[in-house]
Amino acid sequence: MPAVLSSQQAPAMDVCxxxxxxxxxxxxxxxxxGGWLEEEEGALQEDGTGGPPGxxxxxxxxxxxxxxxVPTDYASYTQEHYQFAGKKIVIQExxxxxxxxxxxxxxxxxxxxxxxxxxxxxxxxxxxxxxxGPGLVSIVAxxxxxQVTATDLPDVLGNLxxxxxxxxxxxTAHLPEVKELVWGQDLxxxxxxxxxxxxxxxxxxxxxxxYFLDKLLLTMVHLSQQGTVVLWANKFxxxxxxEFLDKFKQVFDTTLLAExxxxxxxxxxxxxxxx
Length: 275
Prior knowledge:
alpha/beta, 10 helices
């Protein structure tokens, strides 16, 4: 499916970082992810606007120690700009992978989280995002005060973690965690129900023309316990999307929270049915 990568122009980020950290959050990343930390550090020290070299070194060291996954070496990346929760968010994206693009339902879900943050009581809420992709939804949830675990397939995790660190380090109460999650596989081993409880499970544009919809639903059910709310936003493109919605309604008490006609995105709230 075609990727629409329209940048959203936004006012300057609120002052939540030092000048050195802002340079990290707002600077351009290299076209190839190889050596991105070194390039960022060099940029901070060359123009003199990023603070003393020692500050840049400390930030670079922090990023290096926290970055556990290496971004996939796509031929090119672009820097896309978004504005949510009063912050300018810069996302490194690549049209070479579905998991490296921000899709329409992600921006719709971010808008909903921002507009309903008090009602949702996101401060310190435990949130897991399924199919986090380049990380926009997880970043917004983190900025709004949540404790976020962002999950996706192994090849997506490097760019996901890069974007999370770049936009949340020293800027959020809780640094997001990144974990591998293959739908339907090793769920109890990697996400034991007895040990983990999430207030919200977030998902956006995870339903499209692929062969893993049953495993996706199984994963949503496994991650949901009493009190867990699933917020699922999706652009409805195919008949299979509506078929999944029918199956979703069979296991979740479902409410349509919002519709975005301009993008054909629907946002649903689901709570697991208990017999």
